[in-house]
Specification:
9 strands, 2 domains, Rossmann fold, alpha/beta, Nucleotidyltransferase, domain 5, 5-stranded mixed β-sheet, globular, 4-stranded parallel β-sheet
Length: 329
């Protein structure tokens, strides 16, 4: 795919083996180009072999060791990635996490990353979505009416972040972030030799839906978010922790309608923990990590509840994941 060297934004998302750029590695990277007017453009993504036998929290990002066994190493894809990023403002939701990881991986590959112009959609949410109490990607997308499909896949999150950026740009009007765009256009990236036979990129087996819109149940053909998660069966125990209380109440009620049990504590019999932050440190989240309990965020759980082959085959419900204070607008 050709990536024209025009001005704009490069929306980045990484899936990693852990939280420290010094000791952990990237296992998936995706970039979505966005024009200054918010129009989405070319996409680039690949799984990455981390150079170690482990891939980190499979129950969060859905990537298994077998998925990256034949994937390229980061150093192999660095030339293509630099081409995708050069000349553009680097955008991420929580750029303070993704950009240091990107810099560390490029340095391991022998590429010194310049001081790039960057934009954080999480930080920008305080200006564009000031009413929010939680500012995770799922929360911001729900409040902005942006569809998040394939949560915790690099391409799914990058597409959603691109949609969030587009909503910010529309709100800000023409000329938004012109200073960052000018700086990005003049930032010099190092020349990285392209190998004569570039490695083949490796995408996830499950497709991630590309369209952006209002939250809705996702068809089976689009369930990239469910990669690695088992289906639910009637009588399975589901536990919730954190999240918007209105959304949580809706999902708990829907679980009961579909024949699932909503329980208050995580045990070895728990089929699913629903949380938007498995590393929140709550007792339920900590116990789920200890036991290896499958974990899903609220958006993914809503899809899983509807699409599992449960005994109660009632009509699928449309669960509005936006907080009540947003739905009332």
């Amino acid at each position: 795919m050709h990536f024209p060297g025009t001005a704009g934004f490069a929306v980045l998302d990484l899936e990693t083996t852990g939280f420290s750029p010094r000791t952990e590695r990237v296992v998936e990277v995706a970039v979505v180009h966005v024009a200054p007017d918010g129009t989405a453009g070319a996409e680039w993504s690949t799984l990455v072999h981390p150079g170690r036998p482990t891939v980190g929290a499979t129950h969060v990002h859905g990537i298994r060791p077998a998925d990256v066994r034949s994937a390229p190493r980061f150093a192999d894809v660095a030339p293509a990635l630099v081409e995708v990023l050069a000349g553009r403002v680097v955008v991420a939701h929580n750029a303070g996490f993704d950009v240091p990881f990107l810099r560390a991986e490029l340095e391991r590959a022998g590429v010194v990353m310049p001081d790039v112009a960057q934009l954080c959609t999480l930080a920008e949410s305080r200006r564009h979505l000031p009413h929010l109490l939680r500012r995770k990607l799922a929360d911001c997308c729900a409040a902005a009416g942006v569809r998040l499909t394939g949560a915790h896949s690099a391409l799914g999150d990058a597409r959603a972040t691109a949609g969030l950026l587009a909503s910010y740009l529309r709100s800000a009007g023409p000329g938004a972030h012109a200073d960052l765009l000018r700086r990005a256009a003049t930032t010099v990236w190092p020349a990285v030799p392209v190998p004569p036979h570039p490695p083949a990129l490796r995408r996830r087996g499950a497709a991630v839906a590309a369209s952006v819109g209002a939250p809705r149940p996702v068809p089976l053909s689009e369930q990239g978010a469910l990669s690695g998660l088992p289906g639910l069966s009637e009588g399975d125990a589901v536990v919730f922790t954190g999240g918007d209380p209105d959304v949580r109440a809706l999902l708990e009620a829907r679980c009961r309608q579909r024949g699932l049990r909503v329980t208050s504590a995580v045990s070895r019999r728990t089929a699913l923990l629903v949380t938007d932050d498995v590393h929140s440190g709550t007792r339920k989240a900590t116990r789920a990590l200890e036991l290896g309990t499958p974990v899903a965020d609220t958006a993914t759980a809503a899809v899983l509840i509807e699409t599992s082959q449960l005994a109660t085959h009632d009509r699928p419900a449309v669960v509005d994941l936006r907080p009540a204070r947003v739905r009332a607008w």
